[in-house]
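Regression test case RT-17, inverse folding.

Input:
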């Protein structure tokens, strides 16, 4: 897609340009994720749909009827996959969660609308099937990084009654967007949009910030302390708008973390982010 670039917006949102060793960092995630799969009980490539990337990696908890945390990877809707971010699962399992890592198709193969519908379908699979893996569908939480943070907010803004009559609208008990993007209009004039392909109408349609939440929270909004002002603004504005409608909102700045390092906090025992997440099921 031909995109007119606003250099200021591109600098604010083009995180890979600001992290020269991004590929090395991701390769490290892959290695840590391989270790997570080798050292933890898991069910890999569980199909929630017919497409190749419509898969879940499920890390059950040893305790029965465990609360469920669905994790959604980032990559600006155009990169990554669950097997590269499974490193987030072990510490969440230690907190007591059954962890479900969700895959989805990537732009430009599909639209962002399609990706949102895929993650909704993944959540529907959890509602109908997670008891087979020891999870409690009535304690379902969502966490995501970057694009996954956007999709986390989309899950909190989903009217489940329109998708599945069996699913209550309080299905999502809380969300943890890490370095999320909730108002997509600024992305229309960035290089990110060359593959995502949003016009302003589509950007508004896919912006959870422009809608009200259906879930009543709580929500934990985390941002890397070394990120651009745009990511602080995105989370601050969502907190301001959604906060009065949610049970609680928590904003965390992850000290010293750039955009990619922010999600690594999920892999660090007793990190400030994990301590806040633990409160969701205390």
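Golden output:
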């Amino acid at each position: 897609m031909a995109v007119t670039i606003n250099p200021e917006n591109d600098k604010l949102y083009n995180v890979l340009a600001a992290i020269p060793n991004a590929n090395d960092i991701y390769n490290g995630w892959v290695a840590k994720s391989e270790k997570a799969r080798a050292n933890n009980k898991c069910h890999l490539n569980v199909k929630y749909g017919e497409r190749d990337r419509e898969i879940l990696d499920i890390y059950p908890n040893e305790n029965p009827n465990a609360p469920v945390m669905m994790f959604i990877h980032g990559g600006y809707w155009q990169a990554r996959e669950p097997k590269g971010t499974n490193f987030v699962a072990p510490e969440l399992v230690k907190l007591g969660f059954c962890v479900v890592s969700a895959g989805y198709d990537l732009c430009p193969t599909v639209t962002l609308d399609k990706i949102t519908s895929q993650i909704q379908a993944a959540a529907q699979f959890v509602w109908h099937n997670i008891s087979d893996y020891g999870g409690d569908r009535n304690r379902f939480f969502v966490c995501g990084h970057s694009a996954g943070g956007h999709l986390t907010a989309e899950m909190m803004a989903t009217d489940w009654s329109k998708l599945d009559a069996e699913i209550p609208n309080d299905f999502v008990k809380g969300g943890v967007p890490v370095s999320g993007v909730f108002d997509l209009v600024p992305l229309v004039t960035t290089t990110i949009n060359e593959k995502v392909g949003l016009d302003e109408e589509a950007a508004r349609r896919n912006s959870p910030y422009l809608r009200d939440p259906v879930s009543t929270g709580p929500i934990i909004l985390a941002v890397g302390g070394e990120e651009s002002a745009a990511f602080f603004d995105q989370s601050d504005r969502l907190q301001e708008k959604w906060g009065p409608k949610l049970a609680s909102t928590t904003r965390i700045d992850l000290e010293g973390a750039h955009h990619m390092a922010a999600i690594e906090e999920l892999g660090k025992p007793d990190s400030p982010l994990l301590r806040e997440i633990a409160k969701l099921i205390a």
